[in-house]
Amino acid sequence: MFGFFTVPTATASTVAPTILNATGDALTLADNNLVSNFLIEGAGGHGIVANGIDGSRVSHVTVDGATMDGIAISNITGSLDFVDASVMNSGQNGISIDGDDGVITFFGDTTIQDSTNAGLSIMNLTTTTVTNPDSTTTDVPGTAQFQNLAITETTGADAMSLVDNDGDIFFNDLEIETSGGGRGVVARNSDRVTSNQGTISTVGAAAIDSEDSNLNMLLTSLSTDGGTNAIRMVRTDGRILVFGSGALGSGGTIQNTTTAIVMEDSGTLGLQSIDFTGNQVVADIDNSESLEFSLSRITGTTQQVINALNLKNLDLGDSLLENNTTTTGSHIQYAVDQDGSYVVSILSSDLMDTTDTLLEVQQLNNAISPVLALTFMQNQVELIGNGAKAADVNWIGSVQSTISGNQVLGSDDNQVAFDINNSHATATTNLLFQSNTVGLSGDSSIGLDVMSTSTSVIEVSQNLMGIGGDNGTSVRISGDDEGDFGFFENTFTATAGGATAVRFLTIDTGSSLIFSSNSVDYSNVNTFIDTGIDIDAVTGTSPIVNLSSTANNVMLGVDAIFSAPSGTTSGAILINNNLVP
Known about the structure:
The protein is an all-beta fold. The strands form three sheets. It has a 55-stranded parallel sheet that branches. A two-stranded antiparallel sheet has the order 12-13. A two-stranded antiparallel ribbon has the order 58-59.
């Protein structure tokens, strides 16, 4: 073998020389080879073989129709460079890298088309520990890196297979398209897989399927049509982020899958500007760090949008949910059976055609006391059907909740805009309910329903609460422990009889109720008994609730302005310029 050789072009530098129909491997590299401008066709073995070499560089070479791998690389301990490599119609892998603690670099544009096995197979990259002169050690990873990689597979092969890698795998720009049922990126037991940007599009198979790996992938778009999953992350650390360009739909389309996203014991998945259409389930999550949707349009879901268990952070923002159905009773089900802190944020989204419950938050284990931070802000919610709810929270632990700037509208009976239930004996319920517009015209509907068996700090301010059905209630609270309850600058209206602005089923002794600058206008109602403030029961020994106002409240057309059991209150509320009771 020689370190350097040159073969002239076949036709005055316009056509590359061809190695045609070699009976075995067409080209085997040695150390320090420089090879450029070759066409290798129909090799009976591999197209190019590089095994245990150092310092070679292959430029502008096309390998077409190799019986085995187009390019087979193994056991590189030094460096190996390719420039503008093109591989197509390989009988096994397009490019195979097996065993490497050196540095393999593909510069320029690398293209792979229509392999029988994987377009790109990387396995057994290793990391070597080197002892420095000062006796410290440094880990030196084997590296495979690609400047611009494009893989197109129509044969049913997976575009990329990454198996048992402890080295660095890096893609500056990645473009993957499969149309024959092959997956995009398949990772098994591979650490430190990174992409800076790219697109993945698959038909009938997952765009990303990862187990026991660490991925840090930034993508411009990701699309899948059909198949079981679009993204599958099992015991996968790191993060996958799809950005799009900021325009709706620019991040790709995931459609017609069984479960579009599966995450189990994994890290972070962030999806922006992706459309989800006609999937049975959009996301099924178990014991993972973070799932984030932004500028997403989720339509035509047939079973459930999100089913999450022990997901530390769920964030849905600037998105549309429309024409989705649920077979489970809730579109977004968020459940917890492990201790810890959990964050749920639903922000600036249009949540239309909401049957049953839009967001259901549940704690399943009575023996733990997790912390919930719930933010539900600037959303438009349309409730459809008897008993539909925008949010239903059943927690046993600390609850920190902000519900602000939302519009919730519904016309069927027994609907509840927001239902917050905390049954912990000591953990505090903190709720800010502010600047919401709630209009429910069905009978026996409730705007805000809160039950807390522990200490409560609840502020209800600057809301417009409209009741349009008989026996509706704007705010209903059950406070079984001492609490601070403040109502400021709210407007309560009703157009049907039996309305109640604020009702306490229970309130504990020592609690305070501040009611200031509120307006209750039931002047358009002439049937049944309408109530302003109703305290059904005061609990505790020597039950006393402290009442106060810092400004006058106006109540018009209200039959029972204030009611409470005799001898259970101190202080007074200023209503129509009179102190009550």
